[in-house]
Amino acid sequence: MLKKKSRYIVAIVGAAGTVGRELVEILEERDFPAADVVLLDSAESEGERIEVRGRNVAVRRLGKDAFPDADIAFFFAGAANSREHVPAAAAAGSVVIDGSGAFRMDPTTPLVVAEVNLQSIGSHAGIIATPDSSVIALVMALKPLHDAARIKRVVITTFQSVSGTGKEAIDELAGQTVALLNFRDFVNKAYPHQIAFNCIPHVDAFMESGGTTAEVNMRREARKVLADDTLQLTATAVRVPVFRSDAASLNIEMTDPLPPNEARFLLSRASGVVVYDDPVRDLYPLQIDVSGKDDVYVGRIRTDDSVANGLNLWLAWDNIRKGAALNAVQIAEYLVKQ
Amino acid sequence: MLKKKSRYIVAIVGAAGTVGRELVEILEERDFPAADVVLLDSAESEGERIEVRGRNVAVRRLGKDAFPDADIAFFFAGAANSREHVPAAAAAGSVVIDGSGAFRMDPTTPLVVAEVNLQSIGSHAGIIATPDSSVIALVMALKPLHDAARIKRVVITTFQSVSGTGKEAIDELAGQTVALLNFRDFVNKAYPHQIAFNCIPHVDAFMESGGTTAEVNMRREARKVLADDTLQLTATAVRVPVFRSDAASLNIEMTDPLPPNEARFLLSRASGVVVYDDPVRDLYPLQIDVSGKDDVYVGRIRTDDSVANGLNLWLAWDNIRKGAALNAVQIAEYLVKQ
């Protein structure tokens, strides 16, 4: 449990990464009561300087020595780093907010989306996990509909930007685009194939079932956050040549009827969700428009009459903010307020 | 009916467009028995010269005067042009192969995908329609599965390249990309929003139901080609920043069980379909790889266990070739062979 203080020491593991930098900014923007912010990352980023409240703070190396004293430790440095260092950080007394996949399905670790299931934090044992970016957006859109009409099954196809992979992928999309427009050669490093002007139906690693970890985990994580193991869900995750923010096409089958207008009303009242849905005026959520925004945007809400009580919709959200850094900060704010 | 000849006069309406130019190339590639190829388009393209079998042929204006003498007339110039000129062409004795949406759902017009329902051509009255590009790929993948296990319902999300909109959209994606990378301003003309580094869930016009014509027609056209009005289908059509070739994520619910291996086997035997499905070796259909190819590529074939007898798969195909020009030429070849 977090001990009550007026200001807290915060550690950010993965501080030099895309989400780490956003964490620094969001903590500042929201005036989080931080006494100190300790920046940690791998050896390659050691010594890199990041502005924290007007001071240039050097990134320290996350090494084998004792985890630094911190009240709250954010981990956004991948599952391997989390598996290696999170237990030590928690044992040293930090409350860990882990953005990796390492502890999400661990039964003693709550998996939390701030607007959906903060109440599950009560039971934490030093580690709180935040879901995959797509799951965060997904459950925020599903929750009000699930409460009203009980969702039976979801078919989701994602349009994921390269920022979810990290800085090297952002550079690769830009570099490949320039190379292609200038008829120059290029190599593929961040992805197995060219991402410029191409879509790749491959996010994370393939499993024996033929699905990727991203696709398979979506159902497990959504079920855990919504606390409903009967929810059926199948996913196809696709990487698209977009720099930032993700989108998804959702097909939803519910137990009870819920006309689009009612769905629109329920979603518009949901915290953290914005309904942006006036197609006749060409208004629907777009990745370029939601970048830098805090909310999950929902549009193209319409009946699917190919099944009883069917609904289609389209989501877009900033995968680095609400899909990662913002949700983690919201969890920290809740811990502080408790 | 087409009169038997050794060589045929062919007219191409929309000759200066993306599909029109591809038609010229495919007729040549496949050595279509053309005595003459008449190129027609709107006033803006009048006089433009296109190479046809080594000769530079001038594009003629499609005007109010009598439709030129032609045995076969391809129409790929949009629904308005087809509505205005196709009846005259058919009345003048041409067999029209229409790629627009104008006659697809007309009960006296067969809607044909060469590998799926050539037999329906028998009943034509001077006009044969070819479906939307997405429908052509969709039914080619569905047909073998439908025959084996009876498909109940399909949820499809498309990833459509800008080439489907035409040359001005190809230029717009290239131009906007360069402008963005150089921090220059740009305008949106081909689409209501920026397409460079962005996905737009809006293909064709919105209807009152909240769906677009592209989405709504997909079900109607697939039902007509497969001759099965019980097939349920819901679609979300999305424009992506890719120059050429389309892709789609398909979720299929069947009446009978059909394991992925069996589906793979049936699809690999289907004419015009190539199974490209070895995810562990990073092999799955990609838009950049299928461009210029004749076949529809299928991969990521896997069980969807969120529903009984569920299957997920991923398609990619050249929307200008198989999705339009090639299918039309295949129909013409069938007419000639009869």
Would you kindly provide a written description of the structure presented here, covering whatever features stand out?
The structure is a homodimer of 338-residue chains. Chain A is α/β, with parallel strands linked by helices and 338 residues long. Chain A has 2 domains: 8-130 and 324-337, Rossmann fold; 135-319, Dihydrodipicolinate Reductase, domain 2. The first copy, chain A, has helices at residues 18-29, 79-91, 114-117, 133-149, 167-181, 213-226, 260-269, 287-290, 321-337, and strands at 8-13, 34-41, 49-52, 55-58, 60-61, 72-75, 95-98, 127-129, 151-160, 232-239, 246-254, 273-275, 296-304, 310-317. In chain A, the strands form 3 sheets. In chain A, strands 5-2-1-6-7-8 form a 6-stranded parallel beta sheet, sandwiched between helices. A 6-stranded mixed beta sheet of chain A has the order 10-9-11-14-13-12. In chain A, strand 12 (273-275), helix 8 (287-290) and strand 13 (296-304) form a beta-alpha-beta unit. The N and C termini of chain A lie close together (10 Å). The model of chain A has no long low-confidence stretch (mean pLDDT 96).
